[in-house]
Design a protein that fits this description.
The protein is an all-beta fold and 211 residues long. It has two domains: 14-94, Immunoglobulins (Immunoglobulin-like, Sandwich), CATH 2.60.40; 107-206, Immunoglobulin-like. Helices cover 0% and strands 45% of the residues. A hairpin with a 6-residue loop joins strand 5 and strand 6 (78-83). It is elongated. The two termini are 40 Å apart.
Length: 211
């Protein structure tokens, strides 16, 4: 009997239970995305199915060993080999993504997780474009030259940029420095475009969505 709205998937003969938890405190992770493939990774058995509010997903797989990949917002991607027997149960643990802190206290590490924005996790171009003109100064008096910066999403689906905090930098008119954020897919399509956004006064900031 299935429970917790964790719908079965995979098309195999054995009902298996996959549970995803936080490695630091064993809290369950809702919405973790699960991909299961054959060991040679040529055939997908489960494609981007998600865990329920209890961190559970029921999978129907034939008896064999499989490659499994788990991703989740604000967590580092994990991969593992799962061996299916009758009514198998696995608990997999994920570590939170930590972008760290910038070396300059007037800057912020802005990071994005591609998994909740586009279908392809790896290789998307995440960019920040400074808005406005003039001579920019930091609140401590330094001259600042804002530049467009970009980075590509890594194997875990994350990309990060180190840019200036909005209210730490102003021009001669007193305007604060805002940024335009974009994600360009591997096919060169501008998928998301946030036209004017403030960078908070914090060491790091998770840009959860682009509209």
């Amino acid at each position: 009997m299935m429970q917790n709205n964790a719908f079965a998937t995979g098309g195999g003969s054995e009902a298996c239970t996959l549970i995803v938890k936080d490695v630091s405190d064993s809290t369950v992770i809702e919405g973790a995305r699960i991909v299961v493939r054959t060991l040679d990774q040529t055939t997908a058995k489960v494609n981007n199915m998600t865990t329920d509010v209890n961190g559970v997903r029921i999978l129907e797989l034939d008896v064999a060993s499989y490659f499994a990949s788990i991703t989740a917002n604000n967590y580092i991607r994990i991969t593992d080999t799962i061996a299916v027997a009758q009514d198998s149960t696995w608990t997999l643990y994920m570590s939170e993504f930590d972008p760290g802190s910038p070396s300059d206290t007037g800057q912020c590490i802005v990071y994005v997780y591609a998994g909740n924005l586009i279908d392809t996790l790896v290789g998307a171009d995440f960019r920040a474009i400074p808005l406005g003109k003039g001579n920019w100064k930091h609140s401590d008096g330094r001259l600042i030259i804002p530049e467009t910066v970009s980075s590509q999403t890594n194997s875990s689906g994350y990309a990060e940029l180190t840019i200036w905090q909005t209210h730490e930098v102003t021009n001669q008119k007193g305007d604060s420095l805002y940024y335009r954020f974009q994600i360009i897919t591997t096919a060169g399509v501008r998928k998301f475009d946030l036209r004017k956004h403030a960078v908070p006064d914090s060491a790091n900031y998770w840009l959860r969505s682009l509209k």
